Amino acid sequence: MMRSLYSGVAGLKTHQTKMDVIGNNIANVNTTGFKSSSVLFSDVLYQTSANATGATATTGGTNASQIGLGAKTSSIQTSITQNGSAQTTNNTYDMMLSGSAFFVVSRGGTNYFTKVGSFGVDGSGCLVNGSGYQVMGWQVDPDNPNQIKKDTVSALYPESEENKVSSPQMTTDAHFTGNIDMTDPELTSVDGRAISVSIYDALGYNYTVKFKLTQDENQADKSLYNLEIVSIKDSNNIEITGTDDPTTNAVEGGYTATIGGANSIQVKFDPDTGNFEYVGAAGQKNAKLEIKPNNPNEKGDVFQSVINGEKVDGINVDFSYLTRFESNGKSTVKAVRGAADTTGGGRSMGKLKDVSIDETGKLYGVYTNGETKLLGQISVATFENPMALEALGNSVYTTTQNSGYFDGIGTSVDEDGGKISQGVLEMSNVDLSAEFTEMITTQRGFQANSRIITTSDSMLEELVNLKR
Questions:
Q1: 315-323/173-179 β-pairing
Q2: Please, what's the largest Cα pairwise distance for the chain?
Q3: Residues in the chain where the model's pLDDT stays below 50
């Protein structure tokens, strides 16, 4: 009789625990990245009133007689690997992890783990979550700005003072492209065909180089053309080329420009096929455009720079893309800043206007001058038994002896088939319909266990009344 009373009490306690868990789940139905929990019950020890016996030649065997002593909470499991629905926010630093990985965040030098990717930047440009934990990841390789160095995780600073500005870069390459029609009347005029290209110096200032293309009159097959530098003007339309000597007929200025070592250069085509042959001399496909200060002590050598550790002097101009075919008497030749693969075009100084995050967690700075620069990569952590992580509140977890440990380096999210989505947050994975169903069964279980106590009490009362 007394056993049933205590079994009822045990049942009440376990159902109350389950109701507590259900209440917490429902309370966090709109909590970003929340992971729902579930309770598992198990029976407790049994009291054996009769042991089992084996069969003999004259009697059969009997089973043991055992009376259970109620229920207990076996475990509380968190569905930590089950992703919630996605909510689009379009915020730059909102991220959603798909898969079983965790973001690594740090506070006070200790690493923690979270599924909530609602991040922002603090006053120093560091990537942090809403509670001030620093988001950890890998830095850019100092020896290769286009690669990530996968080392011990450290705080990411996508909007540090260093990353807010994109340094200018001198134009190192240009190329001529298009077609020259030998019947084009512009090619035989005094002014020739005007061609211009925009370039940058080492300080990021912009200039316009103007050329004149004319047909060489001494060539009967019209396969030879002269390309002459006419002028170089800055962004204020002030000419910078010429000489400081007023006795010459050249335009006065602080710099002298040459292409292939002279003011003009010859471009040769095959008279039979119309294909480009050479520029300047047989076998040459390129010519160097050099802009030198007439007085280095007064004028800076801004058309000389060091790029990727190498000294660059002048602009390499590629002519190999030119052709000489018939095109209704109109030429389409033009000069383009940068090489054919778009490298070496140079740029002005730029300011950070946006941060882009790809599916592997790499952060790229997008600048007003068109440059896209790698700023770092978000590292993630995976565990053998993620359900064993201990929740600390504020949507962060820490490791336990049963979860496995973090190696301090982490992994890239795509190594386990996951990805990071930018501008998206993970919603709570609480299923309200399931929680309300569990609430009903829990309530009925609690009521049934309370009936055990009241019924046992009534039976004890009847027993006591026997003495009347």
A1: parallel
A2: 143
A3: 246-251
